Amino acid sequence: SAWKGKSLHLQFNGSGTGMSNIYQDDRIAGQDSLYRERRRPQYHFSSRRGWINDPNGLVFHDGEYHLFYQHNPYEREWENMSWGHAVSKDMIHWQELPIALHPDKSGTMFSGSAVIDYDNTSGFGKPGNPAMVALYTVDSPDRQVQSLAYSLDKGRTWTKFPGNPLIDSKEKWNSKDTRDPRVLWYAPGKHWVMVLNERDGHSIYTSSNLKDWTYQSHVTGFWECPDLFELPVDGNAGNKKWVMYGASNTYMIGSFDGKTFRPEHGKYYFSAGSIYAAQTFSNIPAADGRRIQIGWGRIPQQGMPFNNMMLLPTELTLRTTKDGPRLFSCPVKEVAQLLEPAGKWKNLSASDASGKLASFSQNDQLYIKTTIRLSHATDAGLSLSGQRLVYYDLNFNMLNGMFYSPQDMTSMELTAEIYLDRSSVEVFIDGGAFSYSMERKPDVGNKEGFRYWGNNITITSLEVSKVRGIWP
Ligand code: FRU
């Protein structure tokens, strides 16, 4: 069986409970340089070593944010899928913990979600200690089935449910692509909802106990890693809408009655580039009710002991735009604690603004907020040593190659917030109406540095902060 171009390669310890755990008693050699490697993200999560992909099981419990993730702890490439685990008190400073779910005789551990079963609907909890329940896909050469594990010690150790698998829908869909269960609590109906990728779209199942699931409906046009959540439009609790989301950052807005999602229009996208398989925290009390998303950053880390990274956690909101309600994505407010303001200017020419940025080293971790008045330029932007960070083409309404027209069409101003880390770039345009992420090209010895370009453009504002690292 081939997956992401690699063949399946399982290593069993023979006991049937999991793989031999090289993380137990794991004192990593060369601790001094850990987290200080040349391309190590300094304010994003990456695993100490090995491959990572999708964020899994995002859940807030007892003051801790949990980030599980698709992980191959043994190699830099995709294989041996396990659930890695990290915790944080603020979604910014992360601590990596031992592997949560190891492959077993039934297969490898693919993506899924986690919930806290406050009402003990599953019976796995103990009085005063609700179970954390993970629902995930087990991948084997011939099928993908949905399974469950639970933890009574804040996600540190897990018990796989003896009644697994819960759902095996391969024959029904005549397809092996049945995976990535996304579970949420549907409060009005007091039942659980699972959104599952099945063949070419997202199916909805319901359950009263997280174990027995009933098929309800299907929405076509999505692929992998579903998400489904409700958000107020413009913060108005009286006007809420549901969002169905897919791995490639496309979404539909519509209504949901606990069994069927009814889209009000076709698909939109709002985030592009390296981001993939983003997931939001499950909806029973997240810290303060914000809808927070973490995306996988598909950013290759050549020559490093680790590969890929997570992107910044962002808050998702639904806001009315000139085209109707749309999703916005902005880094969470907790990121601000990392910023050390380093300069602020107004109304500069392109060359003056480039000059202000020239004092920052090409390798600094920086936050740059800049508003560009486009005037009569046909194309304009900001580049770093030849790599285009922001690139707007007015003829085609294209922003970094994607269709986009500025929110503020009357003055033709575009505001970009740019987060530069050692190996990544994330850009949020016009308050998060559109965002994208990409690899920060390794320094190729090009001394050009930062450069604004575009005929007659004005940099109406420029603000720069250094970004502190998160590792001890
Ligand atoms: C998305 C994905 C998921 C799958 C996982 C396997 O990147 O393909 O659909 O569960 O990765 O690692």
Low-confidence stretches: 5-27
Radius of gyration: 23 Å
Strand content: over 45%
CATH class of the largest domain: Mainly Beta
**What are the distinct ligands in this entry?**
beta-D-fructofuranose
Q: Tell me about the biggest sheet?
A: 7 strands, mixed
CATH superfamily of the largest domain: Glycosyl hydrolase domain, family 43
Quickly count the helices: 2
Backbone shape? globular
| N-end to C-end Cα span | 41 Å
Largest sheet strand order:
20-35-34-33-28-37-27
Task: Give a written overview of the molecule.
There is one protein chain. A seven-stranded mixed beta sheet has the order 20-35-34-33-28-37-27. A five-stranded mixed beta sheet has the order 6-5-4-3-23, with no helix packed on it. The two termini are 41 Å apart. 3% of the residues lie in helices and 50% in strands. The protein folds into two domains: 2-323, Glycosyl hydrolase domain, family 43 (Tachylectin-2, Chain A, 5 Propeller); 334-467, Exo-inulinase, domain 1 (Jelly Rolls, Sandwich), CATH 2.60.120.560. Residues 5-27 have low confidence and may be disordered. By secondary structure, the chain is mainly β. The protein has helices at 170-173, 350-357; strands at 2-3, 6-7, 50-61, 64-72, 82-88, 94-101, 108-117, 131-139, 144-151, 159-160, 178-186, 191-198, 201-207, 214-220, 227-233, 236-245, 250-256, 261-263, 268-269, 271-273, 275-280, 292-297, 306-307, 309-310, 314-321, 324-331, 339-349, 366-373, 379-384, 387-393, 398-399, 402-403, 413-420, 424-429, 434-439, 450-453, 458-467. The structure holds beta-D-fructofuranose.
